[in-house]
Design a protein that fits this description.
single chain, 220 residues, mainly alpha, Tetracycline Repressor, domain 2, two-stranded antiparallel ribbon, 10 helices, 2 strands, 71% helix, Transcriptional regulator, TetR family, HTH-type_TetR-like_transc_reg, DNA binding
Length: 220
Amino acid sequence: MSSIENTGRPGRRQQDPEGTRRNIIEVASTEFALNGLAGARIDEIAEKTRASKRMIYYYFGDKEGLYVSALENAYRVVREGEAELDIESLPPLEGLRRLVGFTFDHHSEHEDFIRMVMIENIHSGRYMERSPALRAVNEAAIARIGSIYAKGVEEGVFREGLDPLEIHWQISALCFFNVSNRATFSHLFGRDMGSADSQASLRQNTIDMVFRYLAKPEYI
C-alpha cells in the first residue's frame, strides 16, 4: 500500500502530514481571526490549503477542534519566541526590558493572535478548557516572569511583594491594547497610532512603565 496520502483533489498528493497540518492551522487561524468561530467555513479553509475538507476533519475532528488547535498554535508561537530570548541569563533589569519589548513587537506583528484572543474572550474562554496544552504552555510564561522577578528581588533591584501573574497581566494589557484599540484611537483622536513614530514612542513608554512598576526607586 502506498504511503502517499491522497487529498481527494486532482494533482494534490501529500507526503508530509505534519506540513499539511501546519498549513491547515495557518490558514484556519487567519479565517478565524477575520470571521470568528461562527463565521469561518471549513469549505473556505480547505480551498485555501493543500488539504481536502475530509482531511481537515481527519486531523481535527470538527471545526471547533480546528479552532482549539489554532488557539494552541497562536500561544505556542509567542511562548517559543519568549523562550528564545534566554532572558534568565541576563541581569533582571535588562531581562525585563527585553521581555516587554519582545511582547510589544510580537503583538504588533501578529494581529491575528490578538483577534483570536479577543474572539476567545467573547466565548468566555470556554474552548480553552478543551486544551490542557494551553494551560501548560502559558504556565511556562508565568514561571519565566517569576524567575526574573525572584532574581531581581534577591539582587535588590525589584520591589518586593509583587505577583508574577499580575506582572504578566500588566505587560499583556499594555501590549494587547496597542493592537486591539489602535484603529478606534486613531479615528477618535485624529492621530495615526500605527505610524512608525507613534509605535516607537508607545513601545518605549510601555517598557518604561513596566520597568518603573517593578524597579526600586533608586534604579529608576
